[in-house]
Recover the amino acids of this structure.
């Protein structure tokens, strides 16, 4: 089970990476039930990225894969075309990553929004790595 | 902070430009928090453009850029494909423009809908110019 | 048919009455189709009253009566108990008044929110009187 | 303007008070535009309180008063009966408190949910006091 303490460390790690990239991010963490566990909007971050970060985290947990992978399948003509209409709205571009425990089970997800999708993904990944490091230690 | 008086002058300016272009527009102004500040639907304007004008204004403030710029990134295969599913529905074609104060800070946005996207954008721009002129004076 | 010009005069009259009462109001006008025609949020008015003013105007037009009259019927044990769950949310306390033309036909409604329900109703009434005066003239 | 750093200190203070009261809380902070700034759900806290805490914070900012004060006016027969149907859902029992700056202006709100309304309010108040102490210092 993902704890609030772990989520807060992940957000701190994500914020640090956001600062390295000179970006301002919305960062959301959901638990195994895809329910919001922790959230932070950095000063000056896009207001519209608030909802996107939460939707990315939910989307990543809903399907246990990176949001960008869903987006590849959701293009016109693709097998999951317009899947974004489900679940009250999905976001299917990069920035959402499942969170796994030491046994590889998905216990939640992180969603990041506020810059390019490359930066969003990199900041989400930085958050995930914080937990991975803690689980190994 | 954007005042109602400023918003009303912007709507008046936008309406004047809409008349010049022989169009009938819905015009919405939101504040820095993306909350509606003022709205006007010109007689005979499309009913469906009511919601579009408000969503354009919100979208422009959500991401501090013209709605058309978001649309370029949101095409199939693009990095923000289907971003419109966030925030209760975005509109990503032209007609929404952020409103800035004399220091260049975004203090709200205007959204216009009722004609071609070129006309919508031109009318929104006319509204923004009213405020710019006032801020300079 | 209610025109934008008439709606704007009604809003101006309502704002004047709001100032007399030393209140800050959200003022919404809907047309015969219960669709928003014009809106103004006075500087410093409650943010939550934005949606309430629009819902009051819609509610008054939905049933062609003052919102407070609906509220009397919507109390626990009353015939319309919890009618507020319909139509995406109604507001059934005072502040919404139907707008009638010279023939007495309902052509829209005004909704006001931002103070006590007595003040809200008084400001809505001031808006309606502006139109009545114009129709007589 | 309320900063993320201030919001995080408020959440830390609220969590400390929640522990003192032996409760598990959802804690939400919104900014002046009623948009989510930071959120934390303590381990084991009620899942349904997630949304309630956010709605309490929004409600307190929407009307610049404690949520419990709105609830007193929203009882059957009261002037604001069923106001909760507005704004996508309000929560009108205690646990939401406006956040003010040193000049007394409302710059956001805190919402807490997870225990009795007395405890919810006490934990929200603990969060507000953290900011008050910082503003004085």
């Amino acid at each position: 089970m993902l704890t609030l303490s772990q989520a807060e460390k992940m957000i701190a790690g994500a914020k640090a990476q956001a600062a390295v990239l000179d970006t301002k991010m919305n960062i959301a963490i959901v638990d195994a039930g895809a329910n919001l566990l922790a959230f932070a909007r950095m000063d000056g971050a896009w207001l519209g990225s608030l909802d996107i970060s939460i939707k990315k985290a939910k989307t990543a947990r809903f399907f246990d894969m990176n949001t960008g992978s869903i987006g590849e399948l959701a293009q016109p003509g693709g097998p999951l075309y317009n899947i974004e209409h489900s679940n009250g709205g999905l976001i299917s571009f990069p920035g959402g990553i499942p969170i796994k425990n030491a046994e590889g089970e998905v216990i939640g997800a992180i969603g990041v929004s506020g810059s390019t999708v490359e930066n969003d993904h990199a900041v989400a990944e930085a958050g995930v790595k914080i937990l991975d490091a803690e689980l190994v230690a």
Summary: Chain D has a mean pLDDT of 97. The radius of gyration of chain D is 14 Å.
